Amino acid sequence: MSPQRRTALVSVAAASLLVAVKLAAGLATGSLGLVSDALHSASDLVAALLTFFAIGVAARPADPGHQYGHGKAEHLVALAEGVLLVGASAFIGWKAISHLAGVTEPAVDPAWYAYLVLVGVIAVDASRAAISYRVGRRYGSPALEANALHFASDLGGSLAVLGGLALAAAGYPLADSAAALLVAVLVLAAAARLMRRNVDVLMDRAPAGADASAREAIGAIQPPVALRRLRVRHAAGRHFADVVIGVPPEAPVGQGHAAADAVEAAVERALPGSDVVVHVEPHAGDAALRERALAAAAAVPEVREVHNVSVVHVGERTEVSLHLKLPGALPLERAHAVATAVERAIAAAVPGVDAVHTHLEPLAEAAAGRRAAHGDEAAAIEALVRELTGAEPREVRLLQTDAGLVGFLTLRVDPALTLAEAHRRASEVEARCRAALPALADLIVHTEP
């Protein structure tokens, strides 16, 4: 017999003895406190019996019908214990309130043997609470920990009943009913805690801190792995973790298996005794993902241009944003339908993408134009370029079109600059020119080394 079942069997024997002794003493003395304490112990007796059998069920290995094992049997039993405690507390509370309200008269005879019974009960409650808690913590048994909580509440209730009997002997008979009401409150509080904790487990609520600990452990793996998804639950003293990681598509099978082993070992270190399942998926880098998204978008009819494709990782989600240029004369309803088609095409072509965001822009249509004189506008642009860059522009050309004055500007930049730095300088020149020349309908700035 396992240590858990042996401990549960001792609890059954102790609860049986306590029920018999408390009930006999309570009926003999007319003490509602002792009777209520006996009912509390009776609920614990049923709970201990259920725990004894539940631990036997929970210890069974996994089978084809229960592939994750039978660990949740303990939590089902603990939930049933909570229901029993609620019923016992309701009965105790009703009887005590009827006495305190004067509906019924208490008839308490605090005989000497009642005190002897309570002292013995307190000693038994203290010992079995300590034993159940110690074994429950050692083996991670929620059912035994629940029993320890019950026994501790029994101990508090017995102390209250002892005080009530002492006051009843001193001429305050309602003190016994007040003690019984206190026992009812203790039972109800214990039931609430017990039911909440086990409902969380049965509903697979993520254990507090376990998710963060597992993520931190995976994040510390070298070389790093791409964590795509992590789910953690807890049952019967064990954590169960489902992990999805990404590896490069060209990586050999051995590399993917080694990454999965590293993740499994990291999670087990963070959550000892856990059951970890790691699933490996091909994970393309952001550059490859952008290329696939761009190709999928460009293949949609009526899309004339795709630019500003960005990949953003939000937690475990991967989102793509992009700008689409469509014919300017296209009705908005049709343009929205094209954008929706683009979003679906990207989702189908790149399964790892969770969301696609599109920004619609009108495509600049061809327009007739004629060369404009290099007058004041051209001189103003050249002056601004000298001010901002310290050099003459390589070319300034202005065209008068149906849409207005369009400028083409070529800048000389330091060949050592990065593309991002050159783009920032061109954007600054464009912004200053537009602000200084409101007549400009458009300005295209080209950079050259």
Explain what you see.
A hairpin with a 2-residue loop joins β4 (305-314) and β5. The strands form 3 sheets. The protein has a 4-stranded mixed beta sheet with strand order 7-8-9-10, with helices on one face. Strands 1-2-3 form a 3-stranded mixed beta sheet, covered by helices on one side. The protein contains 12 helices and 10 strands. It has 4 domains: 3-202, Up-down Bundle (Alpha-lytic protease prodomain-like), CATH 1.20.1510; 210-282, Cation efflux protein, cytoplasmic domain (Alpha-Beta Plaits); 286-363, 2-Layer Sandwich (Alpha-Beta Plaits); 369-448, 2-Layer Sandwich (Alpha-Beta Plaits), CATH 3.30.70.1350. α2 (32-58) packs parallel to α6. The relative contact order is 0.07. The radius of gyration is 38 Å and the shape is elongated. The model has no long low-confidence stretch (mean pLDDT 78). It is of the alpha/beta class and 449 residues long.
Give me the strand/helix succession. Answer: HHHHHHHEEHEHEEHEEHEEHE
Write the CATH homologous superfamily of the largest domain. Answer: Cation efflux protein transmembrane domain
Continuous helix count: 12
Could you tell me the radius of gyration in angstroms? 38 Å
The proportion of residues in beta strands is: 15-25%
Specify the structural class. alpha/beta
